[in-house]
Predict the structure.
Amino acid sequence: MKSKHSVIQSSLLKITILLFCIFALLYFFIIYIYWTKATAEKKYELFTKAVAAETIISNNLDSLIGIIDGDLTDEQKILKINSWLVPRFKEISIDGPLACIGYYDESLNYSFLYYRNEKIEQGYMPNHRDIVKMLKETGESQFFSDFGIYGLDGKGTFAVAVPAFAENRIIGYTWALGNATNVFLNEYINYSLLFVPIMLLIIFVLAIVNKSIKRIETSLDNFTQNILSDNLTDQQDMADLPELKPVFERIRAHLENLQVLNQELEAANEKLSTIMEGISDGFFSLDSDWRFSFVNSKFKEFFGKEQVDLTGG
């Protein structure tokens, strides 16, 4: 099917679509880089908080073990450890991305948690028992996150847990948890700030392309007018479109050949007229009363008749 647009218009449309696709891919690639960087920073901050909590436990093992090994009931031990840990956890979570920091004690099978004012959405709070179960299988520090954080919707949580040791034995785990909300909001602002210059760049590039195509159209139009007007010596458009010079030279050579052939044809016609006049004079000199008619194919074609009709015989 024949296109309704010119080659130049089609080229501009294709260039526009190609540029848009390139910048769209670039934009989403940059978004991925931003998000990966933001989540890595978030996990690192949480890791430092979890390590700080583990340091508190390690530096106060004697006090902690003294409470656990005391004659108190489990409920009393939990209350006492909680009153001792919470102020220290509160100091850790003064700054940073924390929503919650905690310590799980294996001997008591209990998690001591300190929450900041930041509320964790129901359904996006990881089960600390699941975290503990996974940690027991590896005995190493691990990161945990919900699949929801990769939806770029501000939901989901980040968590990191660190084992606490005493005499080469794991006595519990400290862990820190943060919402993805702040990360999402901050990075969304970065995406928006990035989107504006990218769109301006696309518009700028398209404007330059459109301007260049307009210049090409003008140069081609002038080039065509020069050829139609037989102005073979005017090469002012060659400076703008040097690619046309070989075409121009071929057209000029062809037109010059046509001019030579036309001159030769005119000379041949003059010679033919002279010959025909000589033949006519020769016939007339033989007998002026006779009516000789010289008939050939051109003569018959001119009158539109056959030889018999023209000569009468």
About this structure: The chain has eight helices and five strands.
